[in-house]
Amino acid sequence: MAKTVGDFGDPPADVLEEAAAAFGLLASTSRLHIMWALSQGECDVSHLADRVGGALPSVSQHLSKLKLAGLVRARREGRRQIYYIGDPDIATVVRLMVGQLTQRAEEPLAPAGRMLGARA
């Protein structure tokens, strides 16, 4: 039976496993940068590679992993694949986290690497 904390019950173990897997994929700086770029709008692999500063084959591999996990989707437009985030809630999470950390980093006297010490 799920415990209730506040207004939320604990999610089932399979949901937590799926969330952990998604967060694990986003733990890669390159994949997080790709997700950040896609949260701003859809893009093809060559434009993504230019934007995130990665080699085309590397960005393509990252996109394959994100797509396999269901975090990214693609549609064909002529000979190009156009990538986008399929779930708007995922885009919201990425924008919120990266945006919040960017804002903190821009604050005067912000402790450098505040989140780095919090890794488990």
List the helices and strands and how they pair.
Layout: E1 4-5, E2 8-9, H1 13-26, H2 29-40, E3 43-44, H3 45-52, H4 56-68, E4 72-77, E5 80-85, H5 88-106
Antiparallel strand pairs: 1-2, 3-5, 4-5
Structure description:
- There is one protein chain.
- The chain is an alpha+beta fold and 120 residues long.
- Helix content is 55%, strand content 15%.
- The protein is built from 5 helices and 5 strands.
- It has helices at residues 13-26, 29-40, 45-52, 56-68, 88-106, and strands at 4-5, 8-9, 43-44, 72-77, 80-85.
- The chain has a 3-stranded antiparallel beta sheet. Strands 1-2 form a two-stranded antiparallel sheet.
- Helix 2 packs across helix 5 (88-106) and helix 3 crosses helix 4.
- It is globular, with a radius of gyration of 17 Å.
- The chain starts with a strand and ends in a 14-residue tail after the last helix.
The helix tally amounts to 5
Structural class: alpha+beta
Please summarize the sheet with the most strands.
3 strands, antiparallel
Strand residue content: 15-25%
Rounded to an integer, what's the Rg over CA atoms? 17 Å
Q: Report the helical percentage.
A: 55-70%
Q: Any low-confidence stretches, pLDDT <50, length ≥5?
A: none
Secondary-structure element string: EEHHEHHEEH
Shape: globular
Q: What strand line-up does the widest sheet have?
A: 3-5-4
Cα separation of the termini? 27 Å
Number of E-type strands: 5
* Average residue-wise pLDDT: 87
